């Protein structure tokens, strides 16, 4: 009789404990997200990106989970790659390097992080099968175009996570060496959440095993769901946050002004470009400082001023599309993506690409922090072990 009364109370207690643990994890995220999203306020709207790469700017914005999509969009509008995405919601997403395209060292590092070397028969067979799924039939990877898969069987997730982690670490080191960020990176919130996950994995695993062995399916399921819930919270937590120097804060202030421009309605953006302060050329056709910063040609290449204005706006749109992705304004910039037309980047492709890479980055950051926590625990254990000897 007592056992019949204890079992429901026991299960309710486990459920309440699980809610409290997940609630604590959400509280940690709620405290850190406003700090992560804060940008110094810019006095003016900028339409010219600051010096540096889109990857550096994404990390300066703490937009780690959109920077992959933004980088690929930049390569696409530069006609260096094209995005291969399904028409529907199913099917692999891949990028193909255009033949003859010239890539810089950082761009090559980035593309190599998406496609592992085919140094085993298993990888080669898997890659060839993935190519066949998108209609490319070859006998060996060497016969195929330079295609890197982001989803599907051709996406080597384990390799991509390690290689992309190394890639972003190298960019962060460059930013610190260039005096944009301080050496210390704030990751306290991620360590707290990771330790919570580890405690749940150990304690919840023992409890779930005992519950299942005693026939208590509900209690065991609650323990598993609680662990999964905290892991899910970790994927929406802010990424490791770099602390910026005064020079880095100035870069972030410029990016804040760029965000203001990207968020303007289309008619407001056009009005800004027609103003004396925002024009890309003078009435006589000479370049303004903004036009020179965008890299426009000194001599007009169109037959009249109206056509030249269209070409100049095309250059501006190409420069700004990756930042529309960084600032999560793809929907607002839908007309601009359609305006490009032949850049192999459509809103449909971009949504498939963005959702894929956000999940990839979230999992990458989660696993990286958990591995670091394991290393710290191992280091502490070794120190105690050494002390006993």
Descriptive tags:
mainly alpha, 64% helix, 14 helices, single chain, globular, 3-stranded antiparallel β-sheet, 389 residues
SSE blueprint:
Elements: H1 2-37, H2 54-60, H3 64-77, E1 81-84, E2 94-97, H4 105-112, H5 121-133, E3 147-149, H6 157-177, E4 181-186, H7 188-213, H8 217-236, E5 241-244, H9 246-263, H10 266-274, H11 289-294, H12 305-326, H13 334-340, H14 347-388
Helix pairs in contact: 1-7, 1-8, 2-3, 3-12, 3-14, 6-14, 7-8, 7-14, 8-14, 12-13
How would you portray this structure in words?
The protein is mostly helical and 389 residues long. It is 64% helix and 5% strand. It contains 14 helices and five strands. The protein has helices spanning 2-37, 54-60, 64-77, 105-112, 121-133, 157-177, 188-213, 217-236, 246-263, 266-274, 289-294, 305-326, 334-340, 347-388, and strands at residues 81-84, 94-97, 147-149, 181-186, 241-244. The strands form two sheets. Strands 1-2-3 form a three-stranded antiparallel beta sheet. A two-stranded antiparallel sheet has the order 4-5.
Individual helix count: 14
Query: Uncertain spans, ≥5 residues at pLDDT below 50?
Result: 1-6
Q: What is the overall shape?
A: globular
Radius of gyration: 25 Å
Mean pLDDT, rounded to whole units? 80
Structural class: mainly alpha
Q: Main beta sheet: strand number and arrangement?
A: 3 strands, antiparallel
Strand percentage, roughly? 5-15%
Terminal residue distance:
53 Å
* SSE pattern, N- to C-terminal: HHHEEHHEHEHHEHHHHHH
Please give the share of residues in helix. 55-70%
* Order of strands across the main sheet: 1-2-3
Number of strands: 5
